[in-house]
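Progress against Task 2.4 (sequence-to-structure conversion) is shown through the following example record, which the project officer requested during the mid-term review.
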Amino acid sequence: MSNKSIIQTDQAPAAIGTYSQAIKVGNTVYLSGQIPLDPATMEVVPGDFAGATRRVFENLKAVCEAAGGSLQDIVKLNIYMTDLANFAIVNEVMATYFQQPYPARAAVGVAALPKGVPVEMDAIMVIS
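Structure tokens generated for the chain above:
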């Protein structure tokens, strides 16, 4: 596929497995799951769920920007949480990163996530 490119930035955590931070095909970017890792230390950020969620959005933002877009270009956001009781916190934090129209979204409760984190998000972005 000749129009496929790998997106990589040191402003987001390096991949901790066999995946790329994002893949761009044409004007569509598929962002891999981000967890609350500090890209400088590759350690899980300490603190509460809101802080973990902010770190995930900052990581997604960095990958979006590396691909030539922004969070506002995200058309689909998938959120995975180990405790759906945190759903309201996700909404509060997300409102500080996005304006209407919001992306399509799914919020899924899962048993566990990498490195024992409480939240992970992946996304699809379309750059105008």
